[in-house]
Amino acid sequence: MQQDAAHLKVTRDGEILQVEFTSRKILDEGNIAEIGDALGALIEGERRPRLIISFAGVDHLSSAALGTLIMANNKIQGREGQLRLCDIAPQIYEVFLITKLNKLFHIYPTIKAARESLQNQGRPPFV
Amino acid sequence: MKHMQIQGKCKQNGQAGLPPTSGHWCGLEIPSTLSRIPEVEEAILRQCEKFSYTDRDLFALKLALDEAIANAVKHGNKMDRHKSVHIKYRVTSRRVDVVVGDEGPGFNPANLPDPTDDGRLDCPGGRGILLMRAFMNNVVYNPSGNSVTLTKFNESPRRFVSRNVAFG
User: Fold this and answer.
1) What is the largest CA-CA distance in chain A?
2) Hey, what domains does chain A have and what are their CATH numbers?
3) Could you tell me if A63 lies within 8 Å of chain B, comparing CB atoms?
4) Is the ipTM of this complex over 0.90?
5) Are residues B121 and A101, on separate chains, in Cβ contact within 8 Å?
């Protein structure tokens, strides 16, 4: 089942929600607030959210986008849910390394690997 | 967006509405809204492309410009639309220098906590300056802390033979 929120393409696979961004540059400062609202609404619609966010095709990321991801993660943790990030381009992944947010987020190379990790919770990430 | 010559010859490109050619200090002024950031980035990055800056250089510049201008809008001018963000830039085959100033009282960047501390990793904000410093060759604040100068060197091996530079 697929539903679309602002700037997001959302696909449900059982209890897992897969989120993709609909534009390469949507994580600019100018429209990150809308994405944050859309992610927040998705999370609040789930009793125990299990979310995968794919960065396929995303070629830019600001610190405001990182803040939005952290807020989403905090909300998900507050609901005893799970968040996985995947398909992150090398230069975007460098941003996670510099900020050490690779220690906070569970990051996987592909959406398949992220999905498998949610189906086998407790296994450590391997990126 | 106001686009003006700061010093030296800042010729028009021969097409109405385009910013001046590179190599001289040029200036931009925008109101304090985040939605105006992309047009500033576009004006500067378009000049860099003429000098064969690498994709990595352009990624780094866009990221640092995003952070510097957003800081000026949000923290410097407190989103006050009556206040402006002032940008000066100069692009050459070797380097890009960009000065981003706001109309706020300034701050001391040395007083900011380290966002990479384990206890702060789940705090949503405070990473902009860290990223600017990581991706730029030089980041310098003025003494009052309401203006920052970003410098990025051209990492391209083709930087001396790009189409707008000598030999061609």
Assistant:
1) 37
2) 2-119 (3.30.750.24)
3) yes
4) no
5) yes
